[in-house]
Amino acid sequence: MTTSTAIRGLWCATLTPLSNDGGVDHARFAAHVHDLFAQGVDGVALFGTTGEGQSFSLEERRGGLDALLAAGIPPARIIVATGCAALPETVVLSRHAVASGCATCLVLPPFFWKGVSDDGLFAWYARVIEGVADPRLRMVLYHIPPVSAVALSVDLVARLAAAFPAIVVGIKDSEGNWAHTAALLERVPQLAVMVGHEPHVPRLLRAGGTGTICGVANIYPALVRALMSPDVTQEDEARLATFIEIAFRQPFLAGFKSMVADRTRDPGWLAVRPPLVPLSEPARRALRTALADAGLPPLAASQER
Amino acid sequence: MTTSTAIRGLWCATLTPLSNDGGVDHARFAAHVHDLFAQGVDGVALFGTTGEGQSFSLEERRGGLDALLAAGIPPARIIVATGCAALPETVVLSRHAVASGCATCLVLPPFFWKGVSDDGLFAWYARVIEGVADPRLRMVLYHIPPVSAVALSVDLVARLAAAFPAIVVGIKDSEGNWAHTAALLERVPQLAVMVGHEPHVPRLLRAGGTGTICGVANIYPALVRALMSPDVTQEDEARLATFIEIAFRQPFLAGFKSMVADRTRDPGWLAVRPPLVPLSEPARRALRTALADAGLPPLAASQER
User: Fold this and answer.
1) ipTM, 2 dp
2) Distance (Å, rounded) from C-alpha B78 to C-alpha B104?
């Protein structure tokens, strides 16, 4: 296995904070990433699902990356989710990420079309790679059918890995279906297999996977880090399972933002871009109470850590 | 009912021809639209589902409209599908269509996010309207859950129609579910209700709907026009049903392009953009044979009509 360190370990699928005018808040964004690094995450993935990536324009996505780089975040610790519904725009964002020196591009399949063939998806990814036309491109395929409604079959992944061995270096499997993850580990062992579903992390690492790109790391990186230890305990796993159960009682993304707003004491973090809606005050209180009742670590203000 | 003529009648959801380099072929595009007008369609809808709209960049979508206008197509006979996954890009395309004098904008809901609330979708559409900030904007909502995987509930449509009575003027219902169409006609009679599913056209017109924006009009406008007559016969309806049954034996969009390639004797029409794939030669032959066996009108070359 020649997996680079770039796609190994604990990567946070970062939330994207908004400013009062509804755009990406660059200062909050950089502060959040610095805070995640201070808490020990290995890197961040920008503008994925948890980052509301598909709700932002190309310009906003490029601008968000540029702002983090300007704030001193090393590009080698940044994965950029560059997939768009349209092929040419996926090329534009991927070229920008590569030119910026970022670790890899995380690429969704084109998600408007449903029920398309593996041949069509293969051609789409091949055209993206040809369009970027840069040998520095490293691509992580992004499998998240519960949201995208377009799955990447194991056959397709194997075909892409074989056709572009220097470029297609990994897959983020966010289906939460262990059978699919296991099939990937078996069939394409040369790829870095990362999961999005945190409870699968211990099993993944034992089976040869390389880590996680996940949303829970926005809130409790230490909880996820514990799962990555060879000494992970049943208690660690139970704590994470409890957190996830609570986090999915409401729309998870608005819930995550509410938790960061609490931790940072910054209500600006509550904003989500439509069609998502922020949590109501009663929902926020219920969430806080549930976390406290479950004995999860308090969401201390950042500066108090 | 004060529905303008702009959203009434037979509108063709036009296919988008590609050039050798994979971009939108402006000359073929304009020729196709002129041909449709010569065959009696009232107007065209650009870059919807049948137009592979989500496969093109903003620039390509704006460029395609500009090219048709430059070729003398009257903007009042053009509906532009301006919906994008991202809100700011939907605003950009809608502003361009409005500034160009086009009849209306046809707007998909944001289709990456699944299971979102009516509140969230309402906020999204409201932000699009506020973002366009032009009283000339006329919007037709685009309900096509079999592809978008995001439905527009009758409640949401009624709420948008009530909140923006001068702007939200219609809905294209492409679900193919008569119960939903009937509920729209009952609940929001002030809207122009158009269907995408051609077999519903006679029933729709009898029930107060205003027409169709449909893909079959790329191939057989006269077949659809016959359905719009008060004297529509069972034979007319049977012919359309037969055509649709045959057209959906293969991916319909590649099949439609194959039929236009036959009619125009221009194999350049076969190209689709990935992740769609063109029909194979055997599939094209089977399609031709099926149409001939069904006694459907021959696909004569345009210049022979």
Assistant:
1) 0.95
2) 7
